[in-house]
Specification:
It is a single chain. The chain has 477 residues and is of the alpha+beta class. The protein has helices at 14-27, 35-46, 102-110, 126-132, 174-183, 188-207, 235-258, 271-283, 294-300, 306-315, 356-369, 376-381, 384-411, and strands spanning 6-8, 60-64, 73-80, 83-91, 114-116, 119-121, 140-150, 156-173, 216-222, 225-231, 261-265, 323-327, 418-426, 433-438, 444-448, 457-466, 471-476. The strands form five sheets. It has a five-stranded mixed beta sheet. A five-stranded mixed β-barrel has the order 13-14-15-17-16. Strands 1-9-10 form a three-stranded mixed beta sheet, covered by helices on one side. Helix 1 runs antiparallel to helix 13, helix 6 packs across helix 7 and helix 7 crosses helix 11. The chain is globular. The model has no long low-confidence stretch (mean pLDDT 90).
């Protein structure tokens, strides 16, 4: 299940800051890096393993959320014959990490960057993740440089990846990129982000894939108070995500052809899960004719519309069950595809924030070079799925606790009030416990009652909102 974005704009109030600080301690997440890890990271930052190939002449840019400093990807798009050429530089974390060393061991302990509404707990020390390994503008950086040639319809016709030295020219954010594209003032590489992004979205629809435009829950300041609302993703975020998906699909194909790799897999959702979503759609007054597929319905939704936003949040339940599948020596696994992508796929574009990407990148580099992967890669493969699953569970626990903490803090003075909501989930083992999605504010909380009408709208009363728990609970009104 993907992380549900949640962020605070401005400085949160003192009670909320205190609750979030206590949450970090209560969850037992790793906080400060050990001194040995920091010392090795400092040394690596000053003397990384640099590649022979120099690609600093390519005018890369990065496109990320505002304020991001851990920049994994830099892109450059150009017309190429009758089609397009994407050059996608991915931070080469392996150039800074000694296999089996303190930084490596700590990364295996942390597995992934953990996101909190008011900050993050990084996978790697900041001297690397926001410094020497990050593709910051104006600095030469080692990278895995992907070159993907596409035809006029956006289909991949050629793939290459090798290590190279790159230099980003600018750090751009999504709102700025969207404004430039909408105004027609963007330079051609950025205008092509829209062109190629739309082509890839069309191909995704053609193959039956789904990209959920899940709204971001956002805490905003209004009249000296804080409120919880949704922020719909910008089109530029979706176009940029298509480039990452494109690269992940190319990487999966390279590993499958070589016979050794790590795939991100997801079985097809069972009919029962889709049936539950139909109940929710009905309750939220979303028209879903039986002849319309789930994928087609998703594309028709507007994340700016509160009812659609609530439904998109619930659609993430169909992504439960995604995992990492290792294969080697040409013995391919039974499942090689990710049902939401509708193709073989792997994670390889966020090595600063996710452990597995360092390994998939090394496997792809070896596959293209026609060489065996470095010894540190196969030695770690068998343990990776379990490590990544544990990291995913930890990230999920953080997500749930963050949402509960923020919602409890913002609803603390509204206990006893009634709201309009929809029961979007019922615990199969405890049918008197479920999840309710309020229409307004943008709150998802626990509801206790007997019976709980799954997928139906109802009035609910807030009975508890305790940030220290953290706990948010409702009952039918």
């Amino acid at each position: 299940m993907p992380r549900r974005p949640l962020r605070v704009t401005g400085a949160p109030e003192a009670p909320l800051r205190a609750a979030l600080a206590a949450l970090r301690t209560g969850l037992g997440v790793p906080l400060a890096f050990p001194l040995g890890v920091l010392a090795e990271a400092e040394r690596a930052a000053k003397a990384p393993a640099l590649p022979d190939h120099d690609a600093t002449d390519i005018p890369f840019v990065t496109v990320d959320p505002p304020g991001a400093a851990d920049l994994d990807q830099a892109l450059h798009l150009a017309r190429h014959g009758t089609g397009y050429r994407l050059r996608y530089a991915i931070a080469d974390v392996a150039a800074f990490v000694v296999p089996g060393g303190p930084v490596d061991a700590e990364a295996h302990r942390r597995v992934t960057t953990l996101y909190f509404p008011d900050g993050k707990i990084p996978l790697h020390p900041a001297v690397l993740s926001e410094g020497a390994a990050s593709l910051l503008p104006g600095h030469d950086r080692p990278a895995a440089l992907w070159t993907l040639d596409l035809d006029a319809d956006g289909r991949t016709v050629a793939v290459d990846v090798h290590r190279a030295l790159v230099r980003s020219r600018a750090r751009l954010d999504y709102p700025d990129v969207q404004r430039r594209i909408d105004a027609g003032t963007a330079e051609e590489p950025l205008m092509l982000l829209a062109t190629v992004g739309r082509l890839r979205e069309r191909l995704e629809e053609e193959r039956g894939g789904i990209s959920l435009n899940v709204p971001e829950q956002e805490i905003v300041e209004r009249d000296r108070a804080y409120a919880l609302t949704y922020r719909a993703p910008l089109p530029a975020e979706g176009w940029n995500a298509q480039l990452s998906l494109l690269t992940g699909m190319a990487a999966a194909d390279l590993m499958l052809a070589s016979g050794t790799g790590v795939l991100r897999t997801l079985p097809t959702a069972p009919d029962g899960a889709v049936g539950r979503l139909r109940h929710t759609a009905h309750a939220l007054r979303i028209d879903w004719p039986h002849h319309v597929s789930y994928a087609k319905l998703i594309r028709s939704l507007d994340p700016h519309e509160p009812r659609h936003a609530a439904f998109l949040q619930e659609c993430t339940t169909l992504l439960r069950g995604a995992g990492y599948t290792v294969f080697r020596d040409g013995r391919l696994p039974e499942i090689t595809t990710h049902s939401a992508v509708a193709a073989p796929y792997t994670h390889c574009t966020a090595p600063l924030r996710r452990l597995v990407d360092r390994y998939t990148t090394a496997l792809c580099l070896a596959a293209v070079a026609g060489e065996p992967p470095p010894d540190w890669v196969p030695a770690a493969l068998d343990a990776l799925p379990k490590e990544m699953a544990e990291g995913g569970r930890r990230a999920g626990a953080v997500e749930r606790a963050c949402v509960d903490t923020v919602e409890a803090a913002l609803l603390g003075d509204r206990v006893g009030e009634e709201f309009d909501g929809c029961v979007v989930d019922v615990d199969e083992r405890r049918p008197t416990v479920g999840t309710v999605q309020l229409e307004s504010p943008a709150v998802i909380g626990r509801i206790d009652g007997d019976p709980l009408p799954l997928g139906e709208r109802l009035r609910v009363r807030l009975t508890e909102a305790d940030p220290a728990g953290p706990t948010v609970r409702f009952v039918p009104a």
